[in-house]
Amino acid sequence: MIKKGMRRQIVLHYILVVFVALLLVEVIFLLAIRTYYYDSVYNKITTQIGISENFYKFTFSNEGSPVHFQKLLEYFDMDNTELEILTLNGDILTGSTPFQPDRTITTSDVSEAVGGSIGRWVGRQAGTNESVMAVSKMLHINGRDSFIVRYLTSMERINSDLLNLTLVSIGIGAAVMAIVMLFSFGLANSIVKPLNNITAVSAQMAKGRFTTRIKGDYKYEIGDLATTLNYMADEIIRSNQIKDDFISSISHELRTPLTSIKGWSETLISGGYDPEETKLGMGIISKESDRLIGLVEEILDFSKLQQNEMKLSIALIDIKVVLQETILNVWAKAEKKRIHLLLECEGTIYIKGDANRLKQVFLNLVDNAVKFSPEDSSIVLSTHRLSKEEMAVIVRDSGIGISEAHLSRVRDRFFQVDALNGGTGLGLAISQQIVELHHGKLELDSELGKGTQVTVILPLTEEQPPVAAEGGNGPELL
């Protein structure tokens, strides 16, 4: 007995479908054969009756007599068939059998013959319980006297042949079902064995053994499932590695400012320093505190984005103003490396968005450009109208660039091209998600050793800012 499971279900369903189909075919076949045999007997008898009728009409034209009936019996008797002459009431006048029972024939073939058609009846012969077929037809004499010619033949031999044919068909059907069962086991195993293998490997993965892989050249949907699970394991390993690298990196990032803050705090507490040294120490503490706050805020922003909890304060903004503020914020850092920040704008461009969040995006992009650009180079921020519906902000530098291997992963969370430069590896991932919240796109184009170009595509709006009242002193956008 097959234990419960998918193998059992496949085998049972496959056998059931084939069994029903085979049963229908055999039933239809046997019914067709039976009909053919029975109709053959019936057609042969009706042909004989037709010949008998014509012979009688042309040979004996006066009246029916026992002599005439006897000649009819002699001429048109059939092998293994009994010929009877009946009255319209079903009484037997004479027959080919020497001993005729003294009874009235009441089977349906007689009543059909009296009605004017050729009657046919299949059933059991009274007394012998033998399976027989009776065919009857009424004959007229001079349009007045009438009698019934009735042929009665045994169907036992035909039924025996049909029974043998049925047994042969059942045997063939059983052989076919046995072959089908063997094939169904093979079919079930071809499906269940790979699934059992995949299930076993999945159980190992669930226990944290992500180096385990599904082996085997599986096809179609099972092959897709195996490939997907292997890919999932690879991605989990990669994500775990990135997470470990992030934890290591963020630990270093947090330890450095904390060490500076703790060191200068202890130094200042000890006292005995002049105002200039005290001012220097407090400045370092303030700078490192700001750095810590920036790291924590970046992690919090990423957490909000992952949980879809970041809310945007949408308003009509001039993108040029946002870029000007961005340049002002990174100007001091760029000056230390003698990097020139250039802004190229095609006039005023209005979009609907969150000014602070978009400023966060551009600050991250320009800060990265400054970080990875050589001294005495330039970083260009430019805006372009792509169509009536879209505009683009391009940040282009001539820095170290990004290799093709890293370019596809640089927007992944926690990924850092150069871990020695610090950072959490979240900046670009956060920037992309903020841009997507504005229904835009962030595209990267870089070549190692030649620089990087980042394009932020945002939807335009037809809405314009309200015109200030004449003589008013409203603020101006620079």
Automatic annotation (TrEMBL):
<dbReference type="InterPro" id="IPR003594">
    <property type="entry name" value="HATPase_dom"/>
</dbReference>
<keyword id="KW-0808">Transferase</keyword>
<keyword id="KW-1003">Cell membrane</keyword>
<dbReference type="InterPro" id="IPR036890">
    <property type="entry name" value="HATPase_C_sf"/>
</dbReference>
<keyword id="KW-0067">ATP-binding</keyword>
<keyword id="KW-0597">Phosphoprotein</keyword>
<keyword id="KW-0547">Nucleotide-binding</keyword>
<dbReference type="Pfam" id="PF02518">
    <property type="entry name" value="HATPase_c"/>
</dbReference>
<dbReference type="Pfam" id="PF00672">
    <property type="entry name" value="HAMP"/>
</dbReference>
<dbReference type="InterPro" id="IPR003660">
    <property type="entry name" value="HAMP_dom"/>
</dbReference>
<dbReference type="InterPro" id="IPR004358">
    <property type="entry name" value="Sig_transdc_His_kin-like_C"/>
</dbReference>
<dbReference type="InterPro" id="IPR003661">
    <property type="entry name" value="HisK_dim/P_dom"/>
</dbReference>
<feature type="domain" description="HAMP">
    <location>
        <begin position="189"/>
        <end position="241"/>
    </location>
</feature>
<dbReference type="GO" id="GO:0016301">
    <property type="term" value="F:kinase activity"/>
</dbReference>
<dbReference type="Pfam" id="PF00512">
    <property type="entry name" value="HisKA"/>
</dbReference>
<keyword id="KW-0812">Transmembrane</keyword>
<dbReference type="InterPro" id="IPR036097">
    <property type="entry name" value="HisK_dim/P_sf"/>
</dbReference>
<feature type="transmembrane region" description="Helical">
    <location>
        <begin position="12"/>
        <end position="33"/>
    </location>
</feature>
<protein>
    <recommendedName>
        <fullName>histidine kinase</fullName>
        <ecNumber>2.7.13.3</ecNumber>
    </recommendedName>
</protein>
<keyword id="KW-1133">Transmembrane helix</keyword>
<keyword id="KW-0472">Membrane</keyword>
<feature type="transmembrane region" description="Helical">
    <location>
        <begin position="162"/>
        <end position="188"/>
    </location>
</feature>
<keyword id="KW-0418">Kinase</keyword>
<feature type="domain" description="Histidine kinase">
    <location>
        <begin position="249"/>
        <end position="462"/>
    </location>
</feature>
<dbReference type="InterPro" id="IPR005467">
    <property type="entry name" value="His_kinase_dom"/>
</dbReference>
<keyword id="KW-0902">Two-component regulatory system</keyword>
